Amino acid sequence: MSIKSQIESLLFIAAKPLSLNDLNKILSKDKKEIEKALLELRDIYHQNESGLQIIEQSKKYQMVSSSDNAKLVQKYLEDETSGELSQASLEALTIIAYRGPISKTELERIRGVNCSLIIRNLLLRGLIEEKNSASGEDKIYNVSLEFIRFLGIESIEQLPDYERLNKDQTISDFLAGTLNSDSSEEIKVKNDNDKSVDNKDND
Fold first, then answer.
1. pTM of the model
2. Which domains does the chain have, with CATH numbers?
């Protein structure tokens, strides 16, 4: 696999700009080689009139939609944030509500899929809040005051079975890596039982 292909994949899934140091750490390649590949990728997208482009600021790079399609993307985002939450978004929101504060890595470990777009959607709706982790290597998510207000409760601890699910040892062991992936189905069943959050969001 070429370095350009690897960088392209990383920029596509990343929920934040990636620096040369970030890419160097992941790819174990020379920074000059990485920067050369980035510039070549940027030219390729530009020359092909792609719907995507790579932007750079202070040696940090991010893949974004083309500015030529800004109005179209804006219309989609307006529809996305005004319509009902998808099942996947509801599942992620339930996990954040019961297990927050939770990192993006932990959320994706429980759900088994990349959650970048779901997190973006929930942030745009004001249902969750984002903070930097103590290490600065990951983002931490918690539900917002707006989410609590919408549910009509005084605190997140008033959610049904909150104490039990927030401290569930099976989930804690899974996140710590002491359980194998087969246990994810058991965790999914536990999350599927938390219908109160889902039902209120659908009202």
1. 0.52
2. 3-68 (1.10.10.10), 84-202 (1.10.10.10)
